């Protein structure tokens, strides 16, 4: 028998139907496997993403903690600096006050000593003037009596020389004391 080209012979049972049915079943199985794999992959990605988020949050918390600690240290250092500066200023103020008191006491002592030196110089000048007056009066008396004209002249010249030396000593002492007072008050300032 000759087979017509339009007629194809199919075995019984037809394998085309079985193959199609098997293909459909395998495609459904593959879809389930792919869906299960996608679900598993998604779960794995979500787990990794959650782990990454947790690590990132821990890092941010660590950085925030470091900022807080840095701010606390900065505040503590600022407070310590302010306290140290205040203490230093107070100590300087007290030192200046003590120095002013010391300068005032020293100046008062110097003024007292200067006053004493002036008083002593005046007393010496008065004593010398008194002695000179006595000697001048004595010389006048001798001259009036005519006693030893040459001897009186010599003693008179010696007394005048002694008077000049004594007055020079007193004047130079006063100048030295005044110079010392002026240089001391210029060095230490006025209290």
Quick rundown:
The chain is mostly helical and 191 residues long. The protein contains 2 helices and no strands.
Q: Could you characterize the architecture of this molecule?
A:
This protein has one domain (18-188). The protein has 191 residues and is mainly alpha-helical. It is built from 2 helices and no strands. The model has no long low-confidence stretch (mean pLDDT 82).
Task: Name a few traits of the molecule.
single chain, 191 residues, mainly alpha, 2 helices, rod-shaped
Proportion of strand residues: under 5%
User: How widely separated are the two ends?
Assistant: 147 Å
Q: Could you tell me the mean pLDDT?
A: 82
How many DSSP H or I helices? 2
Please provide the ordered H/E string of secondary-structure elements.
Answer: HH
- Tally of structural domains: 1
Unreliable stretches, pLDDT < 50, 5 or more residues?
none
Global structural class: mainly alpha
Shape: rod-shaped
| Secondary structure: helix percent | over 70%
What radius of gyration results from the CA coordinates?
62 Å
How does the SSE layout of this entry go?
Elements: H1 15-145, H2 149-188
Helix pairs in contact: 1-2
